[in-house]
Amino acid sequence: MRKLSLRARAWISDICYALLVLVTGCFFAISGALLLSQAIRTSPIRSWTNNWDAVIIAATYLLVCIISIALCVKRRVTVRRRLQRIAKTHHSIVRKEVPQPVHEYISQEFARSCLVSYESQPCNTVHSGWGRPGTRLSGIRFRRALLDTIAEIDARTRLVIPSHPDLKPHARMLHHFRFLLPLLPKDEEGLSELHYYDSAIQLARTVDREPTEEEYQRGMDAVASILQMLRECRSEMLEDSRI
Which residue windows are transmembrane per the record (predicted)? Predict the structure, then answer.
């Protein structure tokens, strides 16, 4: 069953309180009117004139109404003042604020909670496609991290090549960044860092299994090399423009 929201419950509570006050006021008024009519009927002259019973009844009801209103106002003021005295910011409890046994109990429970939280942390756990806990890759999802580098490299490339073509959703990195190939060195196999980066992105895009840590690391090494080359080209362009 779906629970009501806090605002809905507060709204229902206010309506119920208003109905309770309205019903109580109605019964209060009806009972006063009936007693006054009874006092008039039992009077010898059947009139308001010199009818002390009616005066006493009216005064009693008026006094009860005033006292009830005063008690409600006093209660609301007291609650508001107590709420205002509550600190809005966090304050640690020192020993002088609570008895010694209470302070020791709070300290023991805090230490126990910290210990349970520490022991509950995963260790020696490996999830496919995620960095191992306790390492520098902890909390990193390899597939998402590799795909996020596309926009970064594309933005850096446009600083060097303003007329660079727009990025298409499923374009191969080797084709999209083809203008960077002459700027990247090649290894003994004739492959540049862009080739390795393209392989890593295709792996993250199309393969059902999650990338391994080695594949992720190789792809990020290619990203670092490409970004370093773009930074050097950008620096040379700025230097030439100054000259």
Answer: 12-34, 54-73
